Amino acid sequence: MIIINLEMIIVLLLIVMMLLGLLLEIAKPGLIIFLVLAILLLLGIITPEEALSGFSNEGMLIIALLFIVAGAVQESGMIDGAIEKWLEKSKTEQESKIRFFVPIAGLSAFLNNTPIVVAFTPIIKNWCEKRGIAPSKFLIPLSYVTILGGTITLMGTSTNIVVHGMLLDYGFEGFSLFTITVVGIPVTVVGMLYLLTIGNRLLPDHKGFSQRVKEDVKEYIAELQVEKSFQYINHSVEKAGLRDLNGLYLIEIIRRNGRVSPVRNSTIIQAGDRLIFTGQISTIAELQNIVGLTLETGTNVELDDLKNGNTFLVEAVVSHHSSLLSKSIKQSQFRSRYDAGVIAVHRKNEKIQSKVGDVVLKPGDTLLLLAGEDFIQKYKQSDDFYVVSRLETPKLLNKNNFQGLCSIAILLVMIILVAVGVLSMLKAMALAVIILLISGMISAEEIKGYVQFHVLLIIACSLGIGTAMTKTGLAQWIADALMAVSAPIGFIAVLVIMYILTNIFTELITNSAAAALMLPIGLEVADSLHLDPIGFAVLVAIAASASFITPIGYQTNLIVYGPGGYKFKDYIKIGVPLSFLVMITSITVIYFVWF
Mean pLDDT lowest for which of 358-372, 384-398, 422-436? Predict the structure, then answer.
């Protein structure tokens, strides 16, 4: 047993503080993990080369290239359109789920699951609403199936690639494209069967956020008529004092047969204008005291009426990495920054009962926005939120079919070259990006939008922290403690405890960070038991990906949280049995294949 020393204590304390910081959301995850790495560097526990090693790790570079290739494929919209048509052919809800699960899982094996969920959330919502089915019956399964599908191949999720890159750094062979498939396919099949049977009965029957807003429109929208006696006729909105109101936003002006939206500070008010406000409608009485403004109590303005040729209703979910976090909507200057008005904010399936402008945003908050027609195209790659609305215009696709087919063909050729051993994953993805760039299918500007730099920062910093755990002996010490607790019970207990620890980490922090922290421990356990380290690496990869119990553990769960109208307990109720099934299946297969 290794004797614990000062450096080990410091690293352990920093990791505990990091976990608490991530759990309490005191700052962005990337910032918290980077700070821990920087402190380790400043204390001399790791060298500058060791601190920066994560940024040159092969796994991280593969992930960066995969973001670009997957982005080019998804941008074409061809896959989305094909699956939507395939879904339309189903006659029953159960049949539609089978038609939906299989291709989505297949896609997730080769594409980043986050953009898949962002792309299909509005398609599924629209399909459900047309048939009177609650979107909550489909959206958690959408997230879970993409997570399960990601376990099928090396390129299915960043977690697998992080583990592969770390194995290479430790001097092992790493994974082939299909090393993990022997576990991924059984796990995916078992998970899908559960979601079609027991899990289907556990799914709630909630209406989506936007559906409920439309039904209760009077709680969100109010109309005031501008009379001739209003003293600010022919003056700007700002001068009239209608911009900085107490909990209310002027989102649209209906003028004769036309509409003015979005409303700017410089917009001129005219007699006869109908002013449409949103926000804390109970405070509308303040405006009734202004001479010349009359509340239209019998207003016939519906939420869908606000949509016109220039404006659309957009639903967006605030991300973990958003620059909007810990600020009120008013402080972030949301309207001027994004040229969009916030109609309502929902958190944990409930409308926030406070002034819209005063709401301090948190990850997972769902915003209903009135935005310009270019909003989705402009912000669909934003780190601030996941746009989960569908823009019903031809501008949804900005790539032609030929380019879409070419990008898909390039991805397929690269997969084949990796599968037959002609190229390594890194070389194949680098070649794919070069071809896409030279052919003009993607631009340098688009690449910036595709690459999720915050994810890469978390991975690179987590790898550096993992190095500190190994170098100081902390990983060995934890492995010895793990062995001391579980060895008397049996070898299977070692696998179970390793799996559960990794799974807890991934629910509390991020999947890639969980893998980076737990792999060194897994390798030390393998060494102590003189067993195949690849088996433990596969165990860590699966356990770090299998985040089903909370909406915050995995970003795909967060994306469907608000749009599906879910509550936190829905994830626990559906996710716990699924996590148990995935664990049993994974450990069983790993035991017989590697041990």
Answer: 384-398
